[in-house]
Amino acid sequence: MISEFYLKKALNIRKEYLSIVSNINIFENMSKDILKIIEGKLEELNTLQSKINEKKVSNIESAKDSLLKIILDLEEESNNIEKSVNDLTSRIDKLKINEKELFADLRKNYQNLTNEEIRNQIHKYIDKKLSIKPNKET
After folding, report:
1. pLDDT tens digit sequence for 51-110
2. Amino acid 104: pLDDT
3. Phi, psi for 10 (deg, rounded to 5)
4. Angle between the N-to-C axes of helices 115-130 and 4-53, in degrees from 0 to 180, rounded to the nearest 10
5. Contact in structure between 102 and 10 (CB atoms under 8 Å)
6. Which of 22, 31, 36, 57 has the most neighbouring CB atoms within 10 Å?
7. What angle do CA 86, 29, 68 make, to 5 degrees?
8. What is the helix, strand, coil percentage profile of the chain, to 5?
9. Cα–Cα distance between 15 and 23 in angstroms, integer?
10. CA-wise closest residue to 23 among 92, 96, 98
11. Closest CA to 102 of 92, 90, 110, 91
């Protein structure tokens, strides 16, 4: 039987994995929102270009300010995306390292168990700990 210490490590890895999956779903929704923002900025750029082409913009400084604002807004959105991706990538990389280290420790300390036996014990423990306990107030 694998010790509680290693089983808890495996459980924590699983919880972090589930958290990452949840964050990926949130990131996907955020990306869709950002795409809408970018489409809006593209429309603003097209409107500005039309005004310039039709000579409806009399002040070049005003046009430059409008363009600069659009560019800065896009840069801010880009920075937000980059930060989110970097954070997620860092968490995934850390998770991979923790998983490899745990597996190496398990192989070293439980040489008498096959990979399948190790996996089964870990899955059984995780399933038990993550399952919803039935309500006994019936």
Report:
1. 888 888 778 888 888 889 989 988 998 898 889 889 999 999 999 999 999 999 999 999
2. 97
3. -65, -40
4. 70
5. yes
6. 57
7. 70
8. 85, 0, 15
9. 12
10. 92
11. 110
